[in-house]
Amino acid sequence: MNTDIRRTIFGILMTAEDYMDAFEKCLRLGLKGGREREIVHVLLDCCMQEKQFNPYYAYLATKFCQFERKFRMAFQFALWDKFKILADFSEENTNNLAHLLVHLLSSKALPISILKVIEFADIDKSTVKFLRTLLIGILQHSNDTIKSVLDIVSGNPKLKMLSDGLRLFLHHFILKALNKKKGLDLSEKKKDIVREKAKFVDDVLRGEDTGL
């Protein structure tokens, strides 16, 4: 927090009664000319630095994204910057970022096309961990929610590389890992849910009729 405005935003986030109070106080700062990006920067930084994921930041981020397009764009560009340096983050940082994005995608505050900048054919271990946490988080939702997240990708020629990348990742880094002795740290019940939902995701991405 190396500027006065960032310290002010940090103070608001730390002392607000709830996410709506933080949202309203941040808006009253009247930041313009791209300076609203400072809110996004501080919010993401605070979220990632928590020892455990705090939904407070997810609800606040969702509120900003749903409020105005300029905030959606600010989050998109800020997240793209984070994707480039995942290897620099701790496991807690990465998990918190993934859980934040699960919330933003499942609430349709941001589209899953935000992942199009990731090179699925050439990803490092840090990106694998991030995407695994993200996709397993999405798979915990209802089929209706999952389909609403994926609809923008399904059957869209411009996002075919993303669709293929998601399918490849699901099969290679999630489903195969479920069958390994030292695979994913999930209960047997959650593993069954992941297997079932992964099949549903694959059907949606291939444009199959899911009955929804």
Q: What is the CA-CA span between the terminal residues?
A: 46 Å
What's the gyration radius in Å?
18 Å
Spell the H/E element sequence: HHHHHHHHHH
Q: Provide the β-strand percentage band.
A: under 5%
Q: Which segments are poorly predicted (pLDDT under 50) over 5 or more consecutive residues?
A: none
Please describe the biggest sheet, giving its number of strands, its sense, and whether it closes into a barrel: none
| Oligomer category | single chain
Secondary-structure-based class equals mainly alpha
> Can you count the helices?
10
Report the helical percentage. Answer: 55-70%
Judging from the principal axes of the Cα atoms, what is the shape? globular
Number of strands: 0
Q: How confident overall, as mean pLDDT? A: 92
Tell me what you see in this structure:
The longest helix has 19 residues. The model has no long low-confidence stretch (mean pLDDT 92). The termini are far apart. This protein has 212 residues and is mostly helical. Helix 1 crosses helix 3.
What descriptors fit this protein?
single chain, 212 residues, mainly alpha, 0% strand
List the helices and strands and how they pair.
Layout lengths: L3 H12 L3 H9 L9 H13 L5 H13 L1 H16 L6 H16 L18 H15 L3 H8 L9 H19 L9 H18 L7
Summarize the structure.
Helix content is 66%, strand content 0%. The protein is mainly α and 212 residues long.
